[in-house]
Design brief:
Blueprint: H1 9-18, H2 46-70, H3 77-104, H4 107-114, H5 124-131, H6 135-163, H7 167-191
Helix pairs in contact: 2-3, 2-4, 2-6, 3-7, 6-7
């Protein structure tokens, strides 16, 4: 397997191109809870709320990208299996995170982040171009965009592990890092190196 350099300048350029409004998204340390609810556990903090608000739409885009691949004419069994696992795993986590957000009654915070495109998410235009592809072009683009999607969100996930107050959410974030890191390695093997978007 040929090995290419890890993301550096090309990744920065791709980040600026693909992450449409990331420049307006506050850093995790700056994110504030709009109004603390009585339903939130005492140990929950701003990092937990920011993580829920940002991770749910991020996961949803990964689910949508996987759905495009699974509904396509791509026959590669390894890529299809990976897409199915990403879809199922991130849907399960989204169900858990949405249930927690409902329990904490943080609708305003979830809505605030629901329209953002950040942390490796692609713009609607890039997604539409991806969704119009077929065959080998779609297979390749799926690996490129999903690898980027995973790599960029890991920093936010690490922030939750390091700074989140709610232990079950920290545990979920740690599992996300392990799973997505392993999935990135699979993508690199399927692609023949480190994909660049």
């Amino acid at each position: 397997m040929r090995t290419l350099p890890l993301f550096a300048a090309p990744l920065l350029a791709a980040t600026l191109l693909l992450a449409g409004c990331s420049s307006t998204e506050p850093a995790p340390s700056e994110a504030m809870i709009s109004e603390r609810t009585d339903a939130m556990p005492a140990e929950a903090n701003d990092t937990d709320v920011h993580f829920l608000g940002m991770m749910v739409p991020h996961h949803q885009q990964a689910i949508d990208m996987a759905d495009v691949l699974l509904a396509s004419d791509v026959t590669d069994p390894g890529v299809r299996d990976l897409a199915q696992r990403i879809r199922d795993g991130q849907q399960r986590e989204n169900d858990q995170m949405n249930a927690l957000a409902d329990q904490w009654r943080i609708d305003a915070d979830m809505d605030l982040h629901s329209h953002h495109i950040a942390n490796g998410m692609v713009s609607p235009g890039v997604f539409d171009t991806y969704a119009a592809l077929e065959g080998e072009e779609l297979r390749t683009r799926f690996l490129e965009l999903m690898h980027f999607h995973h790599a960029e969100v890991i920093a936010m996930t690490r922030d939750q592990v390091d700074n989140g107050g709610y232990a079950p959410l920290r545990d979920m974030a740690a599992e996300m890092i392990d799973v997505q890191t392993a999935e990135m390695a699979e993508m690199e093997q399927m692609y023949g190196g480190v994909p660049t978007p």
